[in-house]
Design brief:
By secondary structure, this protein is mainly alpha-helical. It has helices at 2-5, 13-23, 33-49, 56-67, 75-81, 88-95, 99-109, 119-132, 139-153, 163-166, 176-180, 187-197, 207-220, 230-238, 248-255, and strands spanning 31-32, 72-73, 204-205, 246-247. The longest helix has 17 residues, at 33-49. The chain starts with a helix and ends with a helix. It binds calcium ion (4 copies). One calcium ion binds next to β3.
Length: 259
């Protein structure tokens, strides 16, 4: 079924989701290796059968794959390759270009501060994006986008989005959260670290305290973190703060492994 969608001139958000899930057989959020080979083969077949040329984006992508055997594609890249009727995922990309903008948006839309974006919060998020992009939509469309977006990014299937799941929207080079995945610590250790670096015991970290903590983490995790990117880490994490006060709950989103 998914491969027949590849023939379409334009595909809908729901069809797009089917395609991605169909080819990402191991469900790791990327189409790579054998998965990518079968995607490319079936894409070419489908276009041929439909009497359509490959688009310029598709051609450029295939050339890139020939050069780079380790090439893998994430969901947002797939949107750029396939002609999607409503490029709803690209709205995110356009609005959230940097990690700092992403974190600010996270803070705004996690309205109940649960540490997750639930379906109703995601719907508000999408609504604002559509308004900004001056797209017309009705409530039914908005529900479709919300359901599709939730399914695409909810890797652990708990029906809500955590920070790391949502961060897949970011381009890899901006996605410092991926690097922090390997640095996350168990709750107990996290609490200890928080208390150690909250030097004045104010109950929150200010920028100077966070700076000291991040330096320590960079030294300890030379493989995962780059000291040169410290300003990026700091500004992105501080975007979660409440007017410069970074509380435990917010820092835990980045540094605490789920219990
Ligand atoms: Ca995969
Ligand atoms: Ca929430
Ligand atoms: Ca989830
Ligand atoms: Ca403090």
């Amino acid at each position: 079924m998914a491969s027949s969608f590849l023939q379409g001139v334009e595909i809908s958000a729901t069809q797009f989701l089917h395609i991605f899930q169909h080819y990402d057989k191991d469900g790791n959020g990327f189409i790579e290796g054998k998965e990518l080979q079968s995607f490319i083969r079936e894409l070419q077949q489908a276009r041929r059968q439909a009497g359509l040329e490959l688009t310029d984006q598709m051609k450029a992508f295939l050339q890139e794959c020939e050069k780079n055997a380790d090439r893998k594609i994430g969901i947002v890249e797939l949107v750029q390759i396939l002609p999607t009727e409503e490029n709803f995922l690209l709205f995110f990309r356009q609005q959230l270009k940097s990690c700092t903008e992403f974190m600010q948006a996270w803070r705004r839309y996690d309205a109940d501060h649960s540490g997750y974006i639930e379906a109703d919060e995601l719907k508000n998020f999408l609504k604002d994006l559509l308004l900004k992009a001056q797209m017309t939509y009705d409530d039914k469309k908005l529900d479709e986008y919300t359901a599709a977006t939730l399914k695409i990014f909810d890797s652990n299937g708990d029906g809500k989005l955590c920070l790391a799941e949502m961060a897949r929207l970011l381009p890899d080079e901006q996605n410092f959260l991926l690097r922090f995945q390997g640095v996350k610590m168990p709750r107990k250790e996290f609490n200890k670290v928080f208390e150690l670096y909250d030097r004045d015991e104010s109950g929150y970290m200010d920028e100077t305290e966070l700076d000291a903590l991040l330096k320590h983490l960079c030294e300890k995790n030379k493989k995962a973190l780059e000291e040169a990117d410290l300003p990026l880490y700091k500004s992105s994490i501080m975007a979660l703060s409440d007017g410069g006060k970074l509380y435990r709950t917010e820092l835990a989103l980045v540094l605490c492994a789920d219990d």
